[in-house]
Amino acid sequence: MTADPIELGRLAEEIAREAGDMLVAKRPTMSGAVATKSSPTDVVTVLDTASERLIRDRILEARPEDRILGEEGGEAPGETDVRWIVDPIDGTVNFLYGLPDWAVSIAVEVEGTVVAGAVNVPARGEMFTAVRGHGAWLGGERLRCNGDVPLARALVATGFGYGVARRAVQGRVVAEVLPRVRDIRRGGSCAIDLCSVATGRVDGYYERGINPWDYAAAGLVATESGATLAGLRGRPVSPDFAICAAPGLFEELHDLLAPLDPDRDTD
Ligand code: IPD
To answer: How far is CA 223 from the centre of its chain?
Structure first.
């Protein structure tokens, strides 16, 4: 079975579109069907589960031997070097409240490298796609992140985890960042924040505690737009920490954040 990144990306886009359409159609009938996960603020709706089921079924119909990692269902083993990384709804709290910034995110990894990704933002009618080496796209428009923005004029997106202790530290960190940048945005979806770096709707992004399903697809969109996505002190992006911005701003943001030790959860 082929592992052509362009074909895998097309399939990711098709499935992300179908899941988004299902979510838009079913959201109005979703009433009170909410459970909590890691903390009382970390919610999962019945539609997160339904979306992931649909996505897993479609992947396995097309490619029965691939592996799948999904936010709600965990890791499913397979026989190939292809792994799909799925967030059925990134920005679940926005989805719950009827805010538009939630996304279906599907990435495809081959031998451990993300080669294609699709981030569907149905409430905005936007589909972000990227294939490694072939650029990042919003529909037919090729994306380039903002360049040459100094830290003091940077609009910086960030997010907060669901745990109380982590949030307390994140609040102290953002208090140090805010006076040094143009402003801060907290959109509520890591995937959309990274796509916003790619489109130039924000200049940079940082967050502690995001997961591969949050950043796998949108991280490729961001890097294919020219941005750097990495962790602190030369480490790769990981749940420990993520910073994303064009080269130049990336280093400035990194050097502001690193001495604040933002990758800790207690004082
Ligand atoms: C969350 C969103 C949010 C980020 C959190 C994530 P979820 O994902 O991406 O922006 O701040 O860290 O957990 O829970 O909506 O899938």
So the answer is: 12
d(CA 250, CA 241) in angstroms, rounded, equals 13
pTM above 0.85, yes or no: yes
Q: Catalytic: 7? A: no
Identify which of 147, 156, 125 has the alpha carbon closest to the alpha carbon of residue 226. 147
Q: Is 215 helix (H, G, I), strand (E, B) or coil?
A: helix
The question of whether 214 is a catalytic residue gets the answer yes
Rg (CA), the chain: 18
Task: Give residue 82 CA to ligand 1 midpoint distance, Å.
Answer: 25
Give the tens place of pLDDT for each residue, 198-236. Answer: 999 999 999 999 999 999 999 999 999 999 999 999 999
| C-alpha dist (Å) from residue 234 to 215, 219, 229, 230, 253 | 18, 17, 11, 7, 13
